[in-house]
């Protein structure tokens, strides 16, 4: 479905300074990964959800501010980021929201690097662990497979990487 059919939406940064928005991101994650995909809650919430470790992008509808998607950016180092917990509520899939969340995360990472390093910032490494069925999605977002498949939280995954 073309993105022009998508309901009016906005992307908002959520971190430790905005606990209400952060809780909305976590609730979307639980709806998708725990309720829909049946991953256990105690692996869904992990060490990267501890204060200071990550930033989320929240996707919400303009009308009513309903949260409908999110992605988590883990700050491994100033130049090394890890994306994860990307999810869009089922009724809102195939509107390009997933891809736009990845692009919003890239924008945030780039802007943060420019702010702290000036216009000619260093090369930024962005990695992720993709569920196997969604590798093609991440390939469309510019990610390349690195290394063999491995088990994570009881499901096969593939490490993928892109440089910004
Ligand atoms: C994965 C997910 C975020 C994709 O979001 P989405 O909004 O439905 O996807 P988009 O509309 O942005 O898709 C962008 C492109 O990727 C393609 N795509 C989407 N899902 C795909 C998949 N599983 N495999 C291959 N390609 C896929 C789309 O066809 C589209 O291609 P196009 O640009 O050529 O038209 C969504 O399906 C989801 O929330 N799934 C459940 C949670 C999950 O598994 N997350 C991934 C954890 S690793």
UniProtKB/TrEMBL annotation:
InterPro entries: Acyl_CoA_acyltransferase, GNAT_dom. It comes from the Eukaryota. GO terms for biological process: UDP-N-acetylglucosamine biosynthetic process. One of its GO terms (molecular function) is acyltransferase activity, transferring groups other than amino-acyl groups. Residues 12-164 form the N-acetyltransferase domain. Pfam families: Acetyltransf_10. This is N-acetyltransferase domain-containing protein. The lineage of its organism: Eukaryota, Fungi, Dikarya, Basidiomycota, Agaricomycotina.
């Amino acid at each position: 479905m073309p993105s022009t059919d998508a309901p009016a939406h906005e992307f908002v940064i959520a971190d430790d300074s905005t606990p209400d928005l952060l809780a909305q991101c976590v609730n979307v994650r639980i709806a998708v990964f725990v309720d829909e995909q049946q991953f256990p809650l105690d692996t869904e919430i992990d060490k990267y959800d501890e204060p200071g470790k990550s930033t989320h992008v929240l996707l919400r509808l303009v009308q009513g501010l309903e949260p409908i998607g999110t992605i988590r950016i883990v700050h491994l180092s100033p130049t090394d980021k890890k994306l994860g917990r990307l999810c869009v509520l089922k009724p809102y899939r195939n509107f390009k929201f997933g891809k736009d969340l990845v692009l919003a995360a890239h924008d945030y990472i780039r802007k943060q690097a420019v702010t702290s390093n000036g216009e000619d910032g260093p090369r930024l490494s962005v990695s992720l662990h993709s569920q196997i069925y969604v590798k093609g999605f991440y390939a469309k977002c510019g990610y390349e497979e690195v290394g063999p498949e491995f088990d994570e939280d009881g499901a096969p995954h593939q490490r993928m990487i892109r440089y910004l």
